[in-house]
């Protein structure tokens, strides 16, 4: 059941922001959605359109606004504002455009809703999440809220895409596919195949359909997962529905304190061996306190190398802001 007073703010009423607000309504994840946009008429148009579905569902409120003050008392706030990928443009190309937006937005949220869990969706999500956190060890903090209350959407969508396609290949319910895509939400992401299980059976030992091999699956599905977002952007100009559902599910885990595991953008613990400041997609338990625990995922030597390469790429992108 949803909480009687659960309130979620969505910043940005563009393609992704509107889709997140709509998903929250369709999936009944909260009682009140506040849709914020700098142009009030844009927020009104999207909010009113979404609200027209409520009579066919269950009672909720979708409130349009251009005032940060209306986000006060939110349990969760989602940041979707910023430039989006253009065809042929990587997520990291968006960094310079969106870094200043994130810093300004986080400061406003600290002012009006300091206790809310903040979920960052804008790309490049890993670097922008690091900018939002700006840990004490770096000598500056862009947000005053505890680090566990700032979450990037990470590689949750990538992991969901992989599990769904792999389930179809193996003729198994995707809920029984236990594997993760980690690292950058982008070109250097990778699947931790050495820790992949179908039920309790290691993927490498799972009976395949005739002609399929473990080596073929790992090669094919790694590339398919990585390129899926670009394929969608090429055909329709951007993604929205998949990431909106991902965000709604994460919000549900927070509001209901479900303790589900998601590969969100988080500052890597030292046990991963990639430094203490890099932020990237890693498995974490998500509940009422946001990131409640980061999990150490077993990986082989090759996967550790890929993790270090992904971390180095993200660290370089973050450092470029100071040049």
TrEMBL record:
Pfam families: Ldh_1_C, Ldh_1_N. Residues 155-317 form the Lactate/malate dehydrogenase C-terminal domain. Gene3D superfamilies: Lactate dehydrogenase/glycoside hydrolase, family 4, C-terminal, NAD(P)-binding Rossmann-like Domain. NAD(+) binds at residues 12-17, 98, 121-123. GO terms for biological process: lactate metabolic process. GO terms for molecular function: L-lactate dehydrogenase (NAD+) activity. Residues 7-134 form the Lactate/malate dehydrogenase N-terminal domain. The active site is at residue 185. Keywords: NAD, Oxidoreductase. InterPro entries: L-lactate/malate_DH, L-lactate_DH_AS, Lactate/malate_DH_C, Lactate/malate_DH_N, Lactate_DH/Glyco_Ohase_4_C, NAD(P)-bd_dom_sf. Belongs to the LDH/MDH superfamily. LDH family. This is L-lactate dehydrogenase. It comes from Cyanomargarita calcarea GSE-NOS-MK-12-04C. The lineage of its organism: Bacteria, Bacillati, Cyanobacteriota, Cyanophyceae, Nostocales.
């Amino acid at each position: 059941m949803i909480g009687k007073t659960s309130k979620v703010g969505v910043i940005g009423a563009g393609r992704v922001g509107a889709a997140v607000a709509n998903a929250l309504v369709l999936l009944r994840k909260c009682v009140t959605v506040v849709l914020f946009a700098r142009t009030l008429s844009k927020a009104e148009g999207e909010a009113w359109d979404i609200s027209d579905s409520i009579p066919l569902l269950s009672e909720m409120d979708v409130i349009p606004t251009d005032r940060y003050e209306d986000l006060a008392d939110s349990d969760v706030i989602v940041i979707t504002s910023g430039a989006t990928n253009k065809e042929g443009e990587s997520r990291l190309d968006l960094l310079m455009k969106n870094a200043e937006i994130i810093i300004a937005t986080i400061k406003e949220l600290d002012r009006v809703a300091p206790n809310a869990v903040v979920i960052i969706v804008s790309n490049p999500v890993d670097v922008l999440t690091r900018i939002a956190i700006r840990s004490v060890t770096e000598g500056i903090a862009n947000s005053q809220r505890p680090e566990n209350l700032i979450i990037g959407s990470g590689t949750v969508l990538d992991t969901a895409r992989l599990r769904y396609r792999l389930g179809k290949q193996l003729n198994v319910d995707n809920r029984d596919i236990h594997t993760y895509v980690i690292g950058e939400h982008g070109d250097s992401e990778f699947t931790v195949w050495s820790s992949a299980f179908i039920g309790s059976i290691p993927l490498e030992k799972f009976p395949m359909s005739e002609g399929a091999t473990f080596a073929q699956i790992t090669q094919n599905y790694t590339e398919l997962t990585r390129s899926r977002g670009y394929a969608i952007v090429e055909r329709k100009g951007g993604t929205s529905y998949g990431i909106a559902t991902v965000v709604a599910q994460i919000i549900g885990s927070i509001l209901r304190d479900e303790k589900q595991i998601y590969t969100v953008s988080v500052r890597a613990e030292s046990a991963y061996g990639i430094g203490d400041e890099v932020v990237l997609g890693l498995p974490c338990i998500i509940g009422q306190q946001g990131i409640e625990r980061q999990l150490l995922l077993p990986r082989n030597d090759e996967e550790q190398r890929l993790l270090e390469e992904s971390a180095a790429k993200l660290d370089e992108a973050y450092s470029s802001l100071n040049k």
